């Protein structure tokens, strides 16, 4: 069942096209992320769904009803803001109960629901605390509780973890996922952090300059990017612009001629982009592979080591699990280079 | 360290001397006189004063409080309306209108009252115009008595609400309003439950300030009060009638009320801002309202702004009036530049201008030296540990009404005293700048403290590692850093001193009469043209200084942040 449907949504601010003809369907109970760099229009898209902005063109359907022209309070969406937007002069209870007040519930019923919700976010003992006295993580959970307690049709998240430190961010995103499953609620989650999107989402939409570049499950998007932008944004891939020779099955980039294996079908002659993930470049020392290069720079990160390697005139970023071999590959060393072609994609030219 | 001890002792000595000599000693003298003279038993004055059957004195208290409360109410409505319309909404010329709305705060109190009188007073332009237009024998309205005073007060004091509320709204996090909206809250409910609590501290702060200023107001009751009694007028009249003990007692009561409110205000505003709970940068934006209510509020605001500008226009117009030519007409009949020429050609007319400028410059010099020293002690020196307490003490005189300060100085310095170099100060040139100084040095303390707070201690420590002399460090490092604060504080003092009226009217002699006293004298002789010309000159001086303050102190920020 479709919970949210956007049809050809566009939003212009003056001459700036913030969102261009976006269409997407989100099923009930799905966790759907909108991922993209800052300024790509993802927050505007979320604010359009919430009703804070009116689309220049297109239609927004929530649970089968057209809400394009309805104000936010009549849409039945819950929202968790980047800065949480908790009411600073109220306690935890008052914040969470705020949305229930318009529902004409009895006092005991309101109390019961608020308590149950705070139990779910592990904040039952803070019920009467003024919100400024809470830590960042606790405030974040109050914001989620406040949005969830009104049982919205769709729950919207606007980069809700960006104000937390790294450790808390990982823990909190697990909690968000658990809550979303438990209440079986449709969630739209805006973020610029690809790890966050991958770990949380059933599906991801990657946005760029107001358009959606690709929609798919995390593994689809990571393994089979449809554009160089998606490959670079999600996989940190090397984007090599060159030409394909379909007859000789060769990709030419600079002075480097890469022989393509049988796996690549329907190769068209002409300009193309080769996206190579850093972990798909395998280095050997002493060099014993088809291609060789010189280590320009090495960054030891503990579990993995990152390399910048120059092969003839092409600069490549490679990542390898740290080992005795990677320890030997100091800057200036000649290394052998092999490609794991199953993790490379040939894409249309940029 | 030898050097750092001197750095503390010198300003501390200065502070103690000034505070004891010109604040505590005069107040003590006043208290002493109020308690009773030899022939009367102790506290007689107070018991008669506060006796409910003493209708005259009760009326003064009730009127003062009533006017203050009404002033708060009306100022709140106008100021809040302006804050919403001129700072939250987008429309053409918004910034120009927003700045025009700050003008009344720069107006010397007496000038504001007189300008108001010309337009709305008994024989003002507007009542005459309406009478002629409606063909009536009597003007349909004329502002006098309590309504007139409240109107003038609203005109002068709404700016407090305007500035405070505008600032609070600017800091209001718009995502709070959006959050309330997604939770199903209506516009009205969001306004009452979210916006109002967030703006409440600003409203309270402005209310207390308005209440205090209104209680201390002298010019408006003097010119519009008629037969009505007010506390400040009671002090003035008692002094003129030679009932020194009554003047002193009413002054003590009024001072205590003002100080009480001031302390409440101080404690409330300086309350640590731990309440700001939400994280992340707050965006600012508009309060969403329907087009109809927007249109109505905008129209009302612009009308009010026009009404606000009328007195200024009128006073300029009247300054070009031929003396004696404006009798029964709606507008003066014949115009001349004579009034202005006389300002600079006639020695007797020019004298008050010279007096005011000289006394203001003297006041600025003294307030800057003392104010900066105190500010240094408060922010970087000995007193920083008990900052709030000492800050309150150091800025307390600003809360004391000018009338009260004048009375206290009269009572303290009518006999030779140590703090006056063994001479009598009353009747001399020095006593006016002294009164200005006592009232106004807190302004410099405040602006210099704010500037000093911006200077990181490590900057001063860094300077100390280069073994330049203390004086050299002061000149090369500290003073340049806090210059904007000193300049803006000094200019505020200059502006206030140039137009000072309330203390001056009690302390002046003919030789050292300031502009404001002369304006009143000309008004009393029905020389409206001359009075208006003086007022316009004063206004121009003040506006020029304000502009200069903007220019000299802008490292971006404005004196009035609109």
**Structural class of the secondary structure composition of chain A?**
alpha+beta
Query: How are strands sequenced across the largest beta sheet of chain A?
Result: 6-7-8-3-9-10
Instruction: Please trace the helix and strand order of chain A, writing H or E for each element.
Output: EEEHEEEHHHEHEHEEHHEEEEEEEEHEE
Uncertain runs of chain A: none
Average pLDDT of chain A: 92
Could you tell me the number of beta strands of chain A? Answer: 20
Give the overall shape of chain A, derived from the CA principal axes. Answer: elongated
Portion of residues within helices of chain B: over 70%
Helical content band of chain A: 10-25%
Spans where pLDDT lies below 50 across 5 or more residues of chain B: 272-284, 555-562
Query: How large a portion of the residues of chain B is in β-strands, by DSSP E?
Result: under 5%
Shape of chain B: globular
Radius of gyration of chain B: 25 Å
What does the main sheet of chain B amount to?
none
Chain pair sharing the greatest interface: A-B, 37 and 26 residues
Walk me through this protein's architecture.
The complex is a heterodimer of chains A (350) and B (562). By secondary structure, chain A is α+β, with helices and mostly antiparallel strands. Chain A has nine helices and 20 strands. In chain A, the strands form four sheets. A six-stranded mixed beta sheet of chain A has the order 6-7-8-3-9-10, with helices on both faces. Chain A has a five-stranded antiparallel beta sheet with strand order 13-12-11-14-20, with helices on one face. A five-stranded antiparallel beta sheet of chain A has the order 15-19-16-17-18, with no helix packed on it. In chain A, strand 17 (304-311) and strand 18 (314-321) form a beta hairpin. The longest helix of chain A is centred in the middle third of the chain and has 17 residues, at 166-182. Chain A is elongated. The model of chain A has no long low-confidence stretch (mean pLDDT 92). Chain B is mainly α and 562 residues long. In chain B, helix 3 packs across helix 11 (231-240), helix 13 (291-319) packs across helix 23 and helix 15 packs parallel to helix 18. Mean pLDDT of chain B is 83; it is low at 272-284 and 555-562. Classes of the chains: A alpha+beta (350), B mainly alpha (562). Chain A binds chain B through residues 50-52, 71-73, 75, 77-79, 81-89, 98-99, 102-103, 130-134, 136, 139, 146-147, 150, 152, 156, 162-163, and chain B through 173, 175-176, 178-186, 189, 193-194, 197-198, 274-282.
